[in-house]
């Protein structure tokens, strides 16, 4: 029995610049952190040759080819694992469309599990790279690369996506207490709306390829990832709210469907109650809203958004890990 625990991620700025159609031409950058909400995967040998895969549905099949879950099927196929296994997954948030990178956390976690089962060591960076290969190259998902690296590595990172497909992961180095101050200023809510990120990301990717103005917008979002890192290094915690606010206004302008009347109303209510900035996490359309505000304003923001579910979280620093391994 093997169990892995892989964190979800919260992306602050630069999201969208990690899509190949953009960074291969211009280079991209994001600033993100992993959080203490996890995807757990268990892998256990079965008594016979069959496969049982349990997630929001349960599949019992004879061969890997019969598995419906695309990620599970792709990983087992790629690693040459044939059968005689039971795989289960559990997550701290809804598995679909949360905006916290749960499907990439699932991919990283299952790869980690499968390699541990095979007795093969892979570094966190190798797991992230292989998760990207499975999701983007093999399954042709129109997604970026930040989620896989954010989940695998853990911590608060500035991640650069280079045109040659290499990736630089730089932990954000800030004076003592700065990261904690950012963490304590953030407040998150669940909108209750889930959606598929793929369709929205495909639209963003298409727009990025064809629209010069939208590309300019993305250039500015990449600059904001750089400036957020600079402000943190300079202990300027309050700048985070302003940067989030500008990034969100830019992101909304990229394509239809990223925001909605309902989400805009929630955002305006939080600003009126004292937030200095915020954003919808992930591709847009639903999932979680996060706001930056002085701690003393949090009760007023909770009151203003009492129709949404307040969601407690903290930053996480470990990344993906095997938490149980019994031969």
Automatic annotation (TrEMBL):
Ranges that cross the membrane: none
Report if keyword DNA damage is assigned: no
Please list the residue ranges annotated as the GHMP kinase N-terminal domain: 71-155
Provide a Gene Ontology MF annotation, just one: ATP binding
Q: Which domain of life is it from?
A: Bacteria
Tell me the keywords, alphabetical order: ATP-binding, Kinase, Nucleotide-binding, Transferase
BP-aspect Gene Ontology terms: GDP-L-fucose salvage
Q: Which residues form the GHMP kinase C-terminal domain?
A: 229-304
The record's similarity note reads:
Belongs to the GHMP kinase family.
Please state what the protein is called. Answer: GHMP kinase
């Amino acid at each position: 029995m093997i169990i892995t625990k892989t964190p979800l991620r919260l992306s602050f700025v630069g999201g969208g610049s990690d899509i190949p159609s953009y960074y291969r031409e211009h280079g991209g950058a994001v600033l993100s952190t992993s959080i203490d909400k996890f995807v757990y995967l268990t892998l256990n040998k079965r008594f016979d040759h069959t496969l049982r895969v349990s997630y929001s549905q349960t599949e019992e099949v004879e061969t890997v080819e019969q598995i419906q879950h695309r990620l599970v099927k792709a990983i087992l196929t790629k690693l040459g694992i044939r059968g005689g296994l039971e795989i289960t997954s559990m997550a701290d948030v809804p598995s679909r469309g949360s905006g916290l990178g749960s499907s990439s956390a699932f991919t990283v976690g299952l790869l980690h599990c499968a390699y541990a089962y095979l007795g093969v060591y892979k570094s966190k960076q190798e797991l992230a790279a292989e998760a990207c290969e499975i999701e983007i190259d093999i399954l042709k998902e129109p997604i970026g690369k930040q989620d896989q690296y954010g989940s695998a590595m853990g911590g608060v990172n500035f991640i650069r996506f280079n045109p040659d497909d290499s990736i630089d992961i730089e932990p954000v180095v800030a004076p003592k207490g700065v990261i904690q101050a950012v963490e304590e200023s953030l407040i998150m809510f669940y909108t209750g709306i889930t959606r598929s990120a793929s369709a929205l990301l495909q639209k963003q990717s298409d727009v990025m390829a064809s629209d010069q103005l939208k590309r300019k917008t993305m250039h500015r979002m990449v600059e904001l990832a750089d400036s957020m890192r600079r402000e943190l290094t300079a202990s300027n915690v309050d700048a985070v709210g302003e940067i989030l606010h500008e990034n969100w206004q830019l992101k909304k302008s990229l394509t239809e469907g990223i925001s909605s009347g309902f989400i805009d109303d929630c955002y305006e209510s939080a600003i009126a109650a004292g937030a200095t900035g915020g954003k919808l996490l992930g591709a847009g359309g639903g999932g979680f809203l996060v706001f930056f505000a002085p701690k003393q304003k949090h009760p007023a923001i909770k009151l203003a958004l009492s129709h949404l579910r307040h969601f407690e979280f903290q930053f996480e620093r470990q990344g993906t890990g095997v938490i149980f391994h019994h031969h």
